[in-house]
Amino acid sequence: MAIADALSTMPGTRRSLRDRVALRLEPYLYTAPALILIAAVMLVPLVLGLSYAFRDIQLLNPFSGGFVGLEHFRTLWGDANFFRALRNTLWWTGASVFLQFALGLILALLLDRPFAGRGLVQALVFLPWAVPTFLTGLNWAWMFNPVIGPLPHWLYALGILDAPNNILSDPSLAMWGPIAANVWWGVPFFAITLLAALQAIPRDLYEAAAIDGAGAFRRFSTITLPFLAPTIAITILLRTVWIANFADLIVVMTNGGPADRTQIVASYIFTQAFKALDFGYASAIAVVLLVLLMIYSMLIVLLRQTLLERG
Amino acid sequence: MASIDIDNVRKNYGAVPVLHGVDLTIKDGEFIVLVGPSGCGKSTLLRTVAGLEEVSSGEIRIGGARVNERHPKDRDIAMVFQSYALYPHMNVAENMSYSLRLRRAAKERIASAVSNAAGKLGLEPLLERRPKALSGGQRQRVAMGRAIVRQPKAFLFDEPLSNLDARLREQMRAEIKTLHRDLGATSIYVTHDQIEAMTLADRVVAMHGGIVQQVGSPLELYDRPANLFVASFIGSPAMNLLKGTYDASGAEAGIVLPDGTRIALSGPYALQSGTEVTLGIRPEHVVLSPIDGLPARVSLVEPTGFGIILHLSVHDLPLIAFTLDRTRLQSGPTTAIAFPPEHLHLFDGAGNRVVRAN
């Protein structure tokens, strides 16, 4: 602290009130530019958004905007559509993350072994990640369409479907459509991050384990998995939050239908805000989703911390 | 414990040969050191014995049984890696007992084997620690402990001391030697450090370019190097090598250097007069200031504390001499040298050692 040093080297001077205030403020003044920037770009929009949840904001009603307290949350508590969307969100997120992770891990393990043409295969595998999500959604919607797409016919031929119908219009199956598109689109993310983590594992360890007598499964469980665990925890956390908030594919492919069977919380927020134009209620739902995801994130971060400490 | 036979082993990586037919017989309980510059194939040879690399042709037998097709775990060997390769998620005791646990050994046997090895290596207070909480030397000990616990047929060491600092390396070298004396285990030890090779080995295998250059006791390699590679690789400072032609005329055979200087040899060699040869002499065998010697200029004096290394030039040929005589520190710009015939080594045009004719 420049001022503090200057003052302490002056013998016999009594610090005036002004000096003492300056001393106290000094560190805050240094950090102020960064803090103000963060507050302006992150906190202000967040607080504004949160405040909508407690206000009556309807775009079509010019007299709305008043403070309504917890009114939206009381409505939400009795909103069957919201709870169905919450269940759908769990299903959508759980199935998507699990399949993306499982397939991504298998892909990463395959790509970790040297073979001819590996560079080309790696590039191809990572391609879906580069496809815009709206294009992905449209593409998969067409593929599930029995008039132009092959998938219903293949599924029928395999005996999975009773008739070559569009699963997107079948209430009991519709969710699998966006999940399939999401898995196809998101597998590369897991494959890339897990492959990077795999390649950071020292090869000596596998050789030492092979000499010690560990078979392929034991080598995987005692070396690969512990090394991957922190990466797995953080990628699953990121993807879960991302997918829970990820309404693009659903909006494009099913728009929440049929009969709200594919409506997730994120698409429900979208519907409330931009179809019903009730921004206040949409914000209240968003706040609930935010709180749920924050609790989930805390749990995963704690889990990762313990994993890292054990390693 | 077991003998190891390496029979005409070849190894190619694609079209690139790295081992050109290696033959080596290792007796039960013998400590063999493979030494050579990097890329000479010594590590590859060790890894083929471990089963981490397949041989392209030839046969490896451990205890008389062919192991070419066996997995590393079925060869009953233990290996100590340069990086130690300790399992980071297991503590010291778990690291050491891993192989026995995988073999479903009895709990009591595992406990006694671990405490026994820990006792030998002074690891008792560290058994609960994880590798990352250990120093380099301690990790090295755990890696050795992991090998000892197995009671394998053979120990394989892949440059185990290269990651340690000089003092620790000396200490661990002595410990490895003591350990080998106590356990009497057949060992193959790979290093590029000739001091480790000389001090540890019962027999040293000098390798270069995927070919075994010489096999013998450390002093055999030092005193009677089989070729120019071994002569220049073993010994520090390295042997002086001078090109010349063999001259059998006169009372004593000799070597004529390019400038016409004749250096006398003791006795005739099985060579034609006029053959191109290389003359070798170790720096400590160069005699300084004899009664009648060759004049030499002193270009550099390097005191090592133990002795003094003198960089000389004799008729513009560079030459290194080593002496324990400290008064040489004050030696003037010129001196005289002589080459005692009994310490001269002679190599033919192909670089192979030439012996005396009688």
Automatic annotation (TrEMBL), chain B:
Alphabetized PROSITE patterns for the sequence: ABC_TRANSPORTER_1 (PS00211), ABC_TRANSPORTER_2 (PS50893)
Protein name: Sn-glycerol-3-phosphate ABC transporter ATP-binding protein UgpC
InterPro entries, A to Z: AAA+_ATPase (IPR003593), ABC_transporter-like_ATP-bd (IPR003439), ABC_transporter-like_CS (IPR017871), ABC_transpr_MalK-like (IPR015855), ABC_transpr_MalK/UgpC-like (IPR047641), Mo/tungstate-bd_C_term_dom (IPR008995), NA-bd_OB-fold (IPR012340), OB_MalK-like (IPR040582)
Domain (ABC transporter): residue spans on this chain: 4-234
Any one GO MF annotation of this record: ATP binding
Pfam families assigned: ABC_tran (PF00005), OB_MalK (PF17912)
Similarity field: Belongs to the ABC transporter superfamily.
Keyword flag ATP-binding: yes
Assigned keywords, A-Z: ATP-binding, Nucleotide-binding, Transport
NCBIfam families: PRK11650.1 (NF008653)
Record's keyword annotation contains Transferase: no
Organism the protein comes from: Mesorhizobium liriopis
CDD domains named among the record's database cross-references: ABC_MalK_N
